[in-house]
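Backbone shape codes
____________________
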Amino acid sequence: MLRGARRPLCCVRAWGRLPSRSLMDLGELVTALNDFASLSLAESWDNVGLLVEPSPPHAVSTLFLTNDLTEAVMEEAVQKKADLVLSYHPPIFAPLKRVTWKTWKERLVVRALEHRIGIYSPHTAYDAVPHGVNNWLTKGLGACTSVPLLPSMAPSYPAEGSHRVEFCTDNTEHLDMVLAKIKDIQEIFCLTTLPARVDGEEQTRVSLNCSQKALLEVVALLSQNSLLYRKTEILLLQKPLLPHNGMGRLCTLSEPVSLSDIIERIKSHLKLPHIRLAVGASKTLESPVRKAALCAGSGSSILKGTEADLYLTGEMSHHDVLDAVANGISVILCEHSNTERGFLSELRDMLAVHLQNKINIIVSEKDRDPLQVA
């Protein structure tokens, strides 16, 4: 090549002056997202995880974050060449009987597959984790400590099985026959026998764990012997609570603040020009707020019955607001997704660290609450 001549564009790319975007395999990325917030924390009624999967192999270079996946947001994702959309609310909730061009949710699936875009939704898993949506919402109150209103339970029991069965007997020969039959039942765990003294007599105590299904068979077996059955104890095993995980938050402010000041803090945090307010009975805008119960989205079922000075959520039913006000609790409503959407910017930064900056992460600019003041 002559000195001073320009290199072909292909050479420029080969030399790395126009670096290509980094990639993650979709399966690897989904595993990492599940590690960030375990889907086992989601509510049982929810529909979370990978909802739309392009045919493999599928590499992800751009992860696109949105609160609601509307058609306008999907078009934005296409234009920005997203490979996976993380939609906080699941765009597929009720089962789809067909995928056509007739309804907007079906069209979302069609567009996603046409452009090889996966769809992942965490929803209530992000509500429950300590670094999730509700934790972000507490920052609108100012300095405070918080605990979950409804703590999450671990996904599994501390030992195998959901029930424990214990009984005693002094009839060794009969016990051997019973144990042989119990061992033939499926889903029996941790079967043990120990010497025990009952009412001054030497006996054998039997303990076992079992599933709900196996429990019915064990009870039916033991009921064939009335003496054995009368000495049987059945315990329901509880899944342990997970500290700091759960729905909603009960917040104790470091210093009491007037209701009017709390309103301004929340409007600033959520970047809203207005909120909806119901002042509790016998309270005023100058009444102090010491404890606030909050839940992002639609929080009536989580907040109801909680003793607090303030309820903060996106939406509540008319009658639940009346109940709160009658109990002297003020209510701030900000519309459903306004209590969630601001979390996306924080999520983008956390995921960048969690994913070691391997991919591009962008937040939708088209995503917005469908309600506005006219």
